[in-house]
Design goal:
Number of helices: 18
InterPro entries: FAD/NAD-bd_sf, Retinol_saturase
CATH superfamily of the largest domain: FAD/NAD(P)-binding domain
Oligomer: single chain
Family: Belongs to the carotenoid/retinoid oxidoreductase family. CrtISO subfamily.
CATH class of the largest domain: Alpha Beta
Helix content: 40-55%
CATH topology of the largest domain: FAD/NAD(P)-binding domain
Keywords: FAD, Flavoprotein, Membrane, NAD, NADP, Signal, Transmembrane, Transmembrane helix
Distance between the termini: 138 Å
Structural class: alpha/beta
């Protein structure tokens, strides 16, 4: 008898023609145990056969592939793959083309920003959002690659090709005072243009005209050339940079200054240890700014150079700001929350009175107290002497009023805005003598002007205040006046007279010096960018009204 035969245990019952059989219980128990054993054997055989098949199919990765999490991922990927196979990046218009044209025209007439109009157009044509995001990302990458650095988000310095600087013979001091010998030399020459003023735009205009073959004389009424770029410390004589050149627009300024100063180079503002961060202080409304080095004492010294007589007031103001800085930050943090949130905020409990007192002081009151003259000094009429208006205006600009009245600005706003940590700015490399970037640029522009046959002089001596000891020379005919030069009195009472054959140009209004370039000159011959800007901006001629 074979053990695997299922009917082998039923042979004793065959041939018995009975309806009921009384079987022994022990025999039935043995029969059940044998059947259970046969079932376990078959299950074990099936399990081993399945393991062999899985090993042959998946190998050592069977436990990873057959894991429930992996199976869920495979199922999800399969569903997404099927969805991608039938994905349409650009569908048909959701409405008629005429309706779309009317909607676009309406948005254009309503002066909706172009970006919003384009998004609306993409929506009307059922463009997939993934395609829109991909296009925007590709455009951002292309923009960064073509235009770098980009404003305050610059991450790479501007690559400037190394050039061997020309060896120039010294042609006099940077500041040249109008003496009798200098006046005699200048009066013997024929000048095409006289530029009154020596700010950055005026010096650049003079150099451009000189490169075009004109003889240009720059006359500074004050005692220092390029007063918008540098100041002298009256106590030490040290030059102080008054401007961080090119706040991000390095490419534009590089093309602008390269023809005038060929050896110009750029560097990042700051150093690696502080993450190239720095603080700038806007000293005037025209955009001139003072580069402030880290540290309280350096800040006090830098601002004091502008107004030496206000050192104690400036020091007191800066110290008070440092003491209230943390409170001001907390105040604005609390006040930015809704009322119901402030009632439960721990910052508002116990300190709200101090915050309110701080914010109640406006800029006008703070300046009046800080700039109050010391002692019992009184005015000529017996009233209390008023603070220096120029010093008050300069210190008031520290608050970044943005055109708002000083009485409407809280002192806490000044605490939060007096130090602006910017990153990614570039400036011109310092010269070998250690002068700052703005002073270095002024020196290079004046040197370039003198090398091209021009000259730059000052009418006031450095140790004396600037006075108006000169007048314009005019030619009158038929009630029309033409300025042909200027005349005045030099030190010692001697007269001088400087004339030009073309026109006298005022430095006031020369915010964009490219407007001074004559139309008849082929400007793109030495810089293609000049010609493009000249076409985009109309030529505006600055004249004096008599």
């Amino acid at each position: 008898m074979r053990l695997g035969a299922e009917d082998a245990f039923a042979w004793p019952l065959r041939g018995l023609d009975t309806e009921e059989l009384d079987l022994d219980e022990e025999l039935l128990a043995d029969l059940s145990s044998v059947k259970a054993l046969l079932g376990d054997w078959r299950s074990l055989a099936s399990f081993r056969r399945l393991n062999r098949e899985l090993d042959e199919k998946y190998g050592v990765f069977r436990f990873i592939i057959l894991h429930p999490a992996c199976q869920w991922l495979l199922k999800t990927f399969g569903e997404q793959y099927e969805a991608w196979r039938h994905l349409e990046l650009v569908g048909g218009p959701i409405t008629g083309l005429t309706t779309i044209a009317v909607v676009m025209f309406t948005l254009w007439r309503a002066k909706i920003p172009t970006s919003y109009v384009l998004l609306a157009l993409l929506f009307l044509f059922q463009v997939h959002p993934l395609l829109v995001v991909s296009i925007m990302g590709a455009w951002a990458v292309w923009r960064d690659a073509r235009r770098k650095p980009l404003g305050l988000l610059a991450k790479r310095p501007l690559p400037v090709k190394a050039q061997t600087p020309r060896v120039l013979e010294p042609s006099g001091d940077f500041d040249r005072f109008l003496t009798a010998a200098v006046a005699a030399d200048l009066q013997a020459q024929t000048w095409d243009h006289i530029v009154m003023g020596s700010n950055l735009a005026a010096l650049h205009t003079a150099v451009v005209l000189a490169k075009l073959g004109r003889k240009v004389l720059v006359v500074e009424p004050g005692a220092t050339l390029a007063p918008d770029l540098r100041r002298r410390n009256e106590s030490t004589g040290e030059e102080l940079d008054m401007r961080v050149l090119t706040l991000g627009n390095v490419d534009w300024y590089n093309n602008l200054l390269k023809p005038c100063v060929p050896d110009i180079k750029w560097r990042r503002v700051g150093n690696k240890s502080d993450g190239y961060t720095h603080t700038i202080l806007y000293a005037e409304a025209g955009g001139d700014c003072l580069l402030l080095r880290p540290g309280r004492q350096r800040l006090i010294d830098a601002v004091t150079v502008l107004h030496p007589t206000q050192r104690k007031a400036i020091e007191s103001l800066i110290l008070n700001v440092e003491q209230t800085r943390a409170s001001a930050y907390t105040y604005f943090l609390v006040r930015s929350q809704p009322t119901w949130a402030r009632d439960w905020n721990f910052l508002d409990r116990g300190m709200s009175d101090a915050f309110d007192t701080l914010a109640a002081n406006n800029v006008a009151d703070a300046l009046a107290r800080v700039l109050k003259p010391a002692g019992d000094e009184q005015g000529a009429d017996g009233s209390e002497a008023a603070p220096d208006s120029h010093a008050k205006a300069t210190l008031g600009s520290l608050f970044h009023l943005e055109g708002l009245p000083a009485k409407d600005i809280s002192v806490a706003a000044y605490v939060m805005n007096v130090s602006r940590s910017l990153w990614g700015l570039h400036t011109i490399v310092d010269d070998e003598a250690g002068s700052g970037p703005a002073c270095n640029l002024a020196r290079k522009l004046v040197q370039a002007l003198r090398d091209l046959g021009g000259e730059a002089i000052t009418l006031s001596q450095p140790e004396k205040p600037a006075t108006r000891a000169w007048d314009f020379l005019t030619l009158s005919s038929e009630q029309r006046h033409k300025i042909v030069g200027l005349s005045g009195t030099m030190e010692g009472g001697r007269k001088f007279s400087l004339k030009c054959s073309r026109e006298v140009i005022s430095a006031l209004g020369l915010a964009e010096s490219l407007r001074r370039v004559p139309k008849e000159v082929d400007v793109p011959s030495f810089c293609s960018r000049f010609g493009l800007l000249r076409e985009q901006r109309p030529r505006a001629r600055v004249v004096f009204k008599l």
